[in-house]
Amino acid sequence: MSIYDSPLKKIPPTDKVDDYVAGLDAVDDAVVIGCATPETEDECTHTSTEITRALAYKLDGYIKLCTRFFSLSSDYSRAYNLWGSERKEHETVGRALLHEMTHMSVVVGRQWITEDYGYGPDG
């Protein structure tokens, strides 16, 4: 059974969701998106030099959205205008989610997975 075989309303709203997601295989071609807080995910901690908004787990097929993700802008016309006039980025919800999707092999294929070299070495 894949995530597509069951409507989301049938997924129980308890800890059983974690068990369900853990049972998915990479061959299910599903991307599961969940939420995380600094208390549940160390990498979601906001420091003066780093703001993590989302985390992609490439091989496991899931993305965790950190608390800061939900404070991102949804003003896409501003993003478009800032880039067009000043070549300045304006982070938006959609752009952040698209960025995380580029890390997912089930979305882009294993040969096209991106890395975040600009953020420095992991751990």
Describe the structure.
The chain has one domain (31-119). A hairpin with a 4-residue loop joins strand 2 (54-57) and strand 3. The protein has helices at residues 16-22, 76-86, 93-101, 105-108, and strands at residues 32-35, 54-57, 62-65. Helices cover 25% and strands 10% of the residues. It is built from four helices and three strands; from the N terminus they run H-E-E-E-H-H-H. Strands 1-3-2 form a three-stranded mixed beta sheet, covered by helices on one side. The longest helix is centred in the middle third of the chain and has 11 residues, at 76-86. The chain is of the alpha+beta class and 123 residues long. GO terms for molecular function: metallopeptidase activity. This is Lysine-specific metallo-endopeptidase domain-containing protein. It comes from Colletotrichum spinosum.
Supply database-style keywords.
disordered N terminus; alpha+beta; three-stranded mixed beta sheet; 4 helices; 3 strands
Main β-sheet, spatial strand arrangement:
1-3-2
Instruction: Tell me the domain tally.
Output: 1
Q: Quaternary state, please?
A: single chain
What are the segments in which pLDDT stays under 50 over at least 5 consecutive residues? 1-12
Largest sheet: 3 strands, mixed
Structural class: alpha+beta
Residue share in helix = 25-40%
Spatial separation of the terminal alpha carbons: 35 Å
The ordered H/E elements are HEEEHHH
Q: Report the radius of gyration as a whole number of Å.
A: 16 Å
Number of strands: 3
What's the number of helices?
A: 4
**Proportion in β-strands:** 5-15%
Mean pLDDT: 76
Principal-axis shape equals globular
